[in-house]
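fyi for ur records
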Amino acid sequence: MNFNLSFIPERSSKPRNAGVTMMMDKGLSINEVENFIQASGHLTDIVKFGFGTSFVTPDLEEKLKLYKEANIRPYFGGTLFEAFYARGMHEDYLRILDKYDLDLAEISDGSIIIPHDKKCELIHSMAKDRTVLSEVGSKDSGILISPNKWIKMMSTELEAGSWKVIAEGRESGTVGVFRPNGTAHTMLINKIIAKVKPEDILWEAPKKNQQVWFVKLFGAEVNLGNIAHNEMIPLECLRLGLRGDTFFEYLPEDYATRLKQVASEEEE
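which gave:
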């Protein structure tokens, strides 16, 4: 922090288990990564190479090295895992993780069918050697999953060894825990958090209105992912009540009574 300001919520420091922020790298250049680290590296816990971008990204090893040196944990998106798994190349995928010395891995089944027992076996096995994120929810907006099934899958995957379960939202923010218009499935989320600890969930929330919604519900220490590289500082301001959307979240109640702008009868 550059100066003192009262009523700012406390934030955990890296490495942290709560208030985790995941940036989604969809093809940044080396220069862009260097600039990103200079500007926002201190706010970034993990970086996901979105979907299969690591397959075609130039200078991949150099990019990974830059993130690691900045105390940011990079990993390959779950779609790449599914691409290897669908081709019967799971062992090859593990060798790829070893080749690039990645201690963080994602297991997902958003595009293909993996029996849930098998998915949990994969989580349990991979968690012996590395930290595992597992994603729940389909990337297809036409596939609806009941709240009870969300809860069961999240709970069993955490029991199998996942560090966090990722609630699917895609980079579009229009599937999984979100409606096609990008608003949150409030009833679904409320049912999930009644059974699964919120700190064990990383919510994909690429859109500002989604980030605002989660910060207002869970506070500054909510785990959020699929954040664009140029939205890390704006998100941190949302977390700290330093944007209009969350301005009064951490101020004493009488401040809002005295200071909050409301429409007057003349304006109406």
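Residues 147 and 188 are 6 Å apart (CA to CA). thats all i got for now
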